[in-house]
Amino acid sequence: MALNGLIFDRRNNTSKNWRNILAEIMGDGILNGCEVTSISNAITVGDGYFILKGAVIENNGADTIPVTPTLTDGYVRLICRIDLTQEASETGPGQVGWVTDFSATTTFPALTQEDINSTGSIYEGEIAVLQIVGGNITALTRSMPGAEIDAEKLGGHPASYFVPAIKPTMISFSGGGITWEANWAWFDGRQVHINFSGRTTAGTDAISGVFAQLPASIPRPSGDFFIPAFFRKATNDTVHFGRIVVSASGQISTSADSGGGWMAIMAVGCYPAG
After folding, report:
1. Of 19, 60, 64, 138, most Cβ neighbours within 10 A?
2. Which Gene3D superfamilies does the entry link to (predicted)?
């Protein structure tokens, strides 16, 4: 056994190489197109692409699959089967094909899904289930969803890590001459974004208990952090740029360089979340 550089010049990569890579970052599903329609005795899959266990399959032009129901009322399932025991070919279906089976309900036997990227040979994916009434196909019941990237495998984090986890929560608090309103939000799972607006009558006053008002699922900072802020001098309406300090214990104070008598009117910042 030895190292084998795959994505390098002068290398001929196998289909198994690419299936292994794609299967690790993307689940089964439709990549593009592949709309399912039907008539009384046939199912048509439109032009498009889908992926099964890392194997990308093209449906080059609409493909119509004849269906001869084995029951009067029930359901038909359209399956795409990968069979690596069949001979590979440079064109045409090669080692993939359509299969149908039937059931009195929408529950069907388990698909055969061997690990074709290791020692397995057969892998099946459900493309669609359609209803049969009076011996004729009448309606589409369900179809294969779109393929999704497995964010957890990409970055070692669940998918929720990359999307908004918590909607902005408006809270307000006051104390020691400071009155704040705060809009807290955890937008991407990597940083807690915060937006303050309010006023203060003394630039160095501090208030505690800020994080006690936040949902427990929002992580707390591991240390002090600073938020850029604009301040306005009430006596002459001059504007000063300073900062607000938020401590790990949940205290907030305006920075010393803002000076007494300044009112903070806006502060926006963020800190790492884990």
Report:
1. 19
2. Phage fibre proteins (2.60.520.10)
Inter-residue contact 255 to 247 (CB < 8 Å): no
One DSSP character per residue, 205-263 reads: -EE--SGGGS-TTSPPPSS-EEEEEEEEETTT--EEEEEEEE-TTS-EEE-GGG-TTEE
Place of tokens 């993307």: 26
For residue 194, what are the β-bridge partners?
184, 269
Q: What are phi and psi of 162, to 5 degrees?
A: -105, 0
**AA identity, residue 245:** V
Phi, psi of 169 (to 5 degrees): -115, 120
- The Cα 73–Cα 197 span in angstroms is 64
Q: Which amino acid would we find at residue 233? A: K
**Domain membership flag for residue 191:** yes
Residue 48 has pLDDT above 70, yes or no: yes
pLDDT at 229 over 70: no
Q: What angle do CA 22, 27, 29 make, to 5 degrees?
A: 110
7 part of a folded domain: no
Coil, strand or helix at 179: strand
Structure tokens at 41: 């005795």
What is the percent of the chain where pLDDT is above 90? 38
CA 162 to chain centre: 7
My answer on whether 119 and 172 are in the same domain is no
Residues 26 and 148 in one domain: yes
Q: What is the pLDDT of residues 143-195, one digit of tens each?
A: 999 888 766 666 665 555 555 445 555 555 555 555 555 555 544 556 666 66
Q: Which of 61-75, 83-97, 232-246 has the highest mean pLDDT?
A: 61-75
The 10s digit of each residue's pLDDT in 127-147 is 999 999 999 999 999 999 988
